[in-house]
Amino acid sequence: MPKVVDHDARRRDFIEAAYQTIVEEGLARTTIRAVAKRAGYTTGALVHYFADKEELIAHVLEENGKLVRERMQHAERELKGRAALRQVLLEALPLNRRQHSSWRIWLALWYHSESSEAMRKEERRRYREWLGRISAILRESIDLGELPAGTDVDARARLLVAMVDGLGVQFLMAGGRMSARKLTALVDGALDELFGTG
Amino acid sequence: MPKVVDHDARRRDFIEAAYQTIVEEGLARTTIRAVAKRAGYTTGALVHYFADKEELIAHVLEENGKLVRERMQHAERELKGRAALRQVLLEALPLNRRQHSSWRIWLALWYHSESSEAMRKEERRRYREWLGRISAILRESIDLGELPAGTDVDARARLLVAMVDGLGVQFLMAGGRMSARKLTALVDGALDELFGTG
Amino acid sequence: MPKVVDHDARRRDFIEAAYQTIVEEGLARTTIRAVAKRAGYTTGALVHYFADKEELIAHVLEENGKLVRERMQHAERELKGRAALRQVLLEALPLNRRQHSSWRIWLALWYHSESSEAMRKEERRRYREWLGRISAILRESIDLGELPAGTDVDARARLLVAMVDGLGVQFLMAGGRMSARKLTALVDGALDELFGTG
Amino acid sequence: MPKVVDHDARRRDFIEAAYQTIVEEGLARTTIRAVAKRAGYTTGALVHYFADKEELIAHVLEENGKLVRERMQHAERELKGRAALRQVLLEALPLNRRQHSSWRIWLALWYHSESSEAMRKEERRRYREWLGRISAILRESIDLGELPAGTDVDARARLLVAMVDGLGVQFLMAGGRMSARKLTALVDGALDELFGTG
DNA sequence: AATGAATGAGGTTTCATTCAT
DNA sequence: TATGAATGAAACCTCATTCAT
Question: What is the pTM of this model?
Answer without folding.
Answer: 0.86
